[in-house]
Amino acid sequence: QKEVEQNSGPLSVPEGAIASLNCTYSDRGSQSFFWYRQYSGKSPELIMFIYSNGDKEDGRFTAQLNKASQYVSLLIRDSQPSDSATYLCAVNTGNQFYFGTGTSLTVIP
Amino acid sequence: SQTIHQWPATLVQPVGSPLSLECTVEGTSNPNLYWYRQAAGRGLQLLFYSVGIGQISSEVPQNLSASRPQDRQFILSSKKLLLSDSGFYLCALFTGTGLFFGSGTQLSVL
Description:
The complex is a heterodimer. Chain A is an all-beta fold. In chain A, about 0% of the residues lie in helices and about 60% in strands. In chain B, strands 2, 4, 5, 6, 9, 10 and 11 form a 7-stranded mixed β-sheet that branches. In chain B, strands 1-3-8-7 form a 4-stranded antiparallel β-sheet, with no helix packed on it. The chains are: A mainly beta, B mainly beta. Chains A and B meet through strand 5 and strand 10 of A and strand 5, strand 9 and strand 10 of B.
């Protein structure tokens, strides 16, 4: 399977701070990129997707993509305790979607 | 809107027993469907995907198999479960903007 690498963490940030999550991928043919949030024992939920180089903002979330460096990141502004979860990076090539192992985020009140 | 039905939510099976997990979707036609497994503390492993009836692509050699007998039905099976088959099994469909997951089945093989 294609490689998708994430720092497993745990990452801890205080409430109101910016959380920065990073992901690298091995397949230069990857076409689109996704960030999912997964609470313990639950299925992943899509937060954002990005196709083009640069930044994409949606509320408190910003996804950043650099295809030359094969790097995608997620910034969470004004982090809230409810953001505490595991964040999964996923890449898409053709019909296949490959996931990283996830980064555990804890937001401390 | 699209809906995925997965059942049961939890399942405990002895080693060597068979397995059949069913996933049905509503609100879409001819979807791309996926089976993933998530072992404890691990990421999602793509097991199978299907782009249409009878069309199955396998990602990882294992003792699991998949079938798609109907457009909106995707079945994961095993003839004999192994301890290593324990995990959280998720069915997903491609919505055009990403994968949408069902609620999953937590399988424990003892």
